[in-house]
Amino acid sequence: MSKSVAATTPLNDIRRWMANRHVGAAYVTHPVSIAYITGFHAEPFERLMALAVRPDGATLIVPAIEHQKAATQVTNAEVVSWRDGEDPYALVSTAIGASVEIAVEKEHLSLRAAEVVTSRTGASEMVDVGEEIRRLRLIKREDEVDKLLRAAAITDAAGEEVFSRMRAGQTEVDVALMIGSAIGKLGGTLSFETLVQSGPNSALPHAKPSSRALAQGDFVLLDFGAAFDGYKADTTRMAVVGEPSSKHLEIHKLVLKAHDAAIAAVRPGVTTGEVDSAARPGPRRPRGSEPRPWLAKNPRDRDGVHHRARRLHSRLWRRADRGRPGRRGRRLPRPDEGGPVAARNHNALMLAPGMRRTAQRTMVYNAIVRLGSHCTAEEITDELHKSKPGFPRSTVYRALEALTASGSVYAAHLGDGPTHYELASGDHHHAVCQVCGGVMHIQEELVSELETHLEQGHGFKPVRTDVLVVGVCDECSRNPTPPAARRRIIDPHHRSN
């Protein structure tokens, strides 16, 4: 791990995101997000708890009953508190200050709270920081991995203890309490409400523990998990009360065969639906006959594949073709390949299921097409102002978030500075000159050779590869030039004599 990566923190990452979007403050309200940024976790229930982030500081606002705990655990923010009967939004107003735009977690902040915050602070626009926090949380730090491993170990140990103590005559509630007790003794807490389903109840998708007593020969489904310091594990196990019969063993053999077939089908480029199909005996549905995930009434009606999978990971379903056998997907044409992309391929602008193709998103996309190469949100805004003076900068950022989430636009993080956006294509590997700021696209064949070497030489199977090389270009090594107003594209085939 490089020093620059090791030195980064979630709070610094959010400040960098704010600076790139010219947002004056962030107002974070989800307890999980607050715990990720500050290390302090609490469930405030009906009381207000929030983290206000500014370029020059941060303030954690908590109910008075949590003040002592927060003051002990939080080191990167000032802790202030309010008592029942006091106005917590007075603290919010002071912590945020005067900001035209505020970043909030739109999926968590209520409409009423948003109205109060805007009226108290004078903010005219709210942008979403929730997706950026989720993106940051995808890559775990070493201490987070340790906590996840600890939670998993507690879960496994509790499961072993409970299996050894289950007996006929115990009720489902008895077993659930036994699981909670075992997890507590091992230093964890429950990740979620434990499910214990026996006999006919084991066939139900989800059912709370009941007073039904376990009987000899019952299947018993256990769905539980331990949490350690806010990081959660989850497991589902099946047991049989007493000795398993030949029927039990036959069912187990079928499930194990499906389990092994599904694992064998997992490899880069394969969809979750194909993995699911590998585990299911019998003829498969004809291609194209599957129900649309966003039309399914039940989230798990789609052959066991959760309907959110395609929405949350749409870019994996449109993985660009790297020209190697077995790779799926397609490559969108680049702007320099024979005319405007929008004119040749109108379907290049694709959005995730349920996401509307609005005029604003189309205008932002077309602005990127016209600019042709890596461009920042500011440059896109300037381009739009040529034909639409006064086009809101905040609308540009919202459109870019939607386009990036859909896979139509790629957000390139070229070292320090603002994020650059380009049309989605098969290659997003760059060499950046630290003198002039020029960008060279690294040929996909070189990256493919690296991936092949890792896979064949070391048994390491790449799933995602992003290459960024920072150095000095050939031209600047001979005649250094100051950074241009816009990043230039360096010809990978050109070299001065």
CATH class categorisation of the largest domain? Alpha Beta
Characterize the main sheet: 6 strands, mixed
CATH fold call of the largest domain: Creatine Amidinohydrolase, Chain A, domain 1
Number of domains: 5
List the uncertain runs.
1-6, 285-347
Inertia-based shape: globular
Determine the CATH superfamily of the largest domain. Creatinase/prolidase N-terminal domain
The radius of gyration computed from the alpha-carbon positions, rounded to a whole number of angstroms, is 27 Å
Helix content: 25-40%
**Which CATH architecture of the largest domain?**
3-Layer(aba) Sandwich
Number of strands: 17
**Helical stretch tally:** 19
Strand order of the largest sheet: 4-3-2-1-5-6
Our estimate of the beta-strand percent is 5-15%
* Distance between the first and last residues' Cα: 37 Å
**Class by helix and strand content?**
alpha/beta
Mean pLDDT: 80
How would you characterize the overall build of this protein?
- This protein is of the alpha/beta class and 497 residues long.
- The protein folds into five domains: 3-138, 3-Layer(aba) Sandwich (Creatine Amidinohydrolase, Chain A, domain 1); 142-243, Creatine Amidinohydrolase, CATH 3.90.230.10; 265-312, no CATH class; 317-426, Arc Repressor Mutant, subunit A (Orthogonal Bundle); 427-497, Dna Ligase, domain 1 (2-Layer Sandwich), CATH 3.30.1490.
- It is 39% helix and 14% strand.
- It contains 19 helices and 17 strands.
- The strands form five sheets. Strands 4-3-2-1-5-6 form a six-stranded mixed β-sheet, with helices on both faces. Strands 7-10-11 form a three-stranded antiparallel β-sheet.
- A hairpin with a 5-residue loop joins strand 15 (430-433) and strand 16 (439-441).
- The protein is globular, with a radius of gyration of 27 Å.
- The two termini are 37 Å apart.
